[in-house]
């Protein structure tokens, strides 16, 4: 019995840790993504773009670990469908549901990004905006389903992520309001038009 | 054995963000308005990997690597 | 020279066009068009038989008859559609039958919308065609006549060119293989189907057979649209337009995307691709504009370039930013304020060939020819041989 409990404890631990890791990686990915769009200078944008893609892949890896360990944990019955269907978990339906929503949205972004050459820029871009919804879903899941907010440093990480993402999103919105959809040449046109 | 390939810019999609020139300065420079000038010669084989990475880096999917027939 | 059937209208008395074609008839017609050597009359001069064959190979294609005539100085398509609307529609229907399309969209300049509507109604009254004809008014603007821009206009109301892979013959209007053909080309097609390749070849030159419509304007007594055999000497074109009204200084051949040529160089040249190649231009959409002695060619060019810069679809950076910059420099030269030839040379080089369509290329050709013809400033080699002059890409 204690072996089972020990195994369950381990799974739960890994699930919590990987959950925190996903949220951190996702938040960093959002910030890197905004930097890739707004970053001063093409060099920074290039580096930010690559970082964004790498972090997104880390998200997938941590997320896989998080979902598998959470569902495999025999202490709580959720069923595999709960990972992707927002209303499928009888245990803490809303909390898990938010997580499933994040998985769905993130999954859509991932798949479209893998085949974006085929889809064409417009379709890919439209789906990519969904990414902005996956973060609140993931964050909502962390706050409602997470059991570690009492730990001071875990809460710090969580709210730090929120602050970073909020900053990035505000910067992104301001940039869009200032210049909706216009081109963003690396060399300001005013300089070249002498 | 890799086929000869050329970089091509879709100027309708290109926004002049300049990531390509930053990633592959050996083959891509920017004109006076920030848009890429791409050599129309074949990409040297030692740069093919970098060229592919540069194509992936374009946020508007405006850069292509066309294998020549 | 042929009898000039293009502008004869109903007086031409041509027999009914072939219709309801079987597969073998279609292939035979494409072969006939190939033998005739018909090329596109929209400016690019692409062999029509090849285009027909490429689109016919696709599934459920659609035909677009391009009567936009975005170039403001050109009048040939409007005159053709006014005088011989049924001939144009015959060609559109025939092109649809040949390629296996069940529909032809006829995009026309708004000046001739009513006439074409009436012509289509006439045909519908007697149930003439199996092919469905749809008429749309073209967008205004210089690039609106570009082939992919016409397709996008019909589909989405945006008259701007689209990126070339995929080609229109593979995937165009509503995702179908699309044949975009200038209305004059379609008129020739209808005549070839009736009278044959040999008849068509009785005009023009062996390498460039047939007739074409040219718009002659500027310092001539009777500016207007003429049908002439390809290869007619340029001087003869001026004669047919009533002769020059003042001693000609230079001619703009090929339209806004053509090139200026000094009059003494141009007048005895054949108006054909071969005849004009080493002067850096082509007949294109058949525009001949005469600049009289005493007029300032650079000022005229500056106005043209400023206009063309404003007509950019604005989709491509080099065109959107480069053309106004070039226009500024040409204006400075024309005003006598002096410009930096190095800068102008640099910008012309940076803009040439770097766009989603041939718009910037045309401007570069125009400016280089103007400086060669009117100015002391040398800004680049004489472009030799054909380059894209409007049309599809």
Describe the structure.
The complex is a heterotrimer of chains A (194), B (69) and C (393). Chain A has 194 residues and is mostly helical. Chain A has helices at 2-38, 42-72, 93-114, 116-119, 121-128, 131-145, 152-178, 189-192. Chain A starts with a helix and ends with a helix. The radius of gyration of chain B is 11 Å and the shape is globular. The two termini of chain B are 14 Å apart. The two termini of chain C are 31 Å apart. In chain C, the strands form two sheets. A five-stranded mixed sheet of chain C has the order 6-5-9-7-8, sandwiched between helices. Chain C has a four-stranded parallel sheet with strand order 3-2-1-4, with helices on both faces. Chain C is globular, with a radius of gyration of 21 Å. Chain C has helices spanning 23-36, 48-56, 76-83, 85-99, 113-125, 147-156, 183-201, 234-240, 263-266, 273-276, 297-310, 317-335, 341-351, 359-374, and strands spanning 62-67, 103-108, 132-137, 178-182, 211-218, 224-229, 248-253, 259-262, 287-292. Chain C is α/β, with parallel strands linked by helices and 393 residues long. The longest helix of chain C has 19 residues, at 183-201. The chains are: A mainly alpha (194), B alpha+beta (69), C alpha/beta (393).
Primary descriptors:
heterotrimer, B: 69 residues, alpha+beta, Alpha-Beta Plaits, two-stranded antiparallel sheet, 4 strands, 23% strand, C: 393 residues, Rossmann fold, Ubiquitin-like (UB roll), de novo design (two linked rop proteins), 3 domains, 5-stranded mixed β-sheet, 14 helices
Chain-wise SSE layout:
The complex is a heterotrimer of chains A (194), B (69) and C (393).
Chain A: H1 2-38, H2 42-72, H3 93-114, H4 116-119, H5 121-128, H6 131-145, H7 152-178, H8 189-192
Chain B: E1 5-9, H1 19-23, E2 28-30, E3 36-38, H2 48-57, E4 63-67
Antiparallel strand pairs in B: 1-4, 2-3
Chain C: H1 23-36, H2 48-56, E1 62-67, H3 76-83, H4 85-99, E2 103-108, H5 113-125, E3 132-137, H6 147-156, E4 178-182, H7 183-201, E5 211-218, E6 224-229, H8 234-240, E7 248-253, E8 259-262, H9 263-266, H10 273-276, E9 287-292, H11 297-310, H12 317-335, H13 341-351, H14 359-374
Parallel strand pairs in C: 1-2, 1-4, 2-3, 5-9
Antiparallel strand pairs in C: 5-6, 7-8, 7-9
Helix pairs in contact in C: 1-2, 1-7, 3-4, 4-7, 11-12, 11-14, 12-13, 12-14
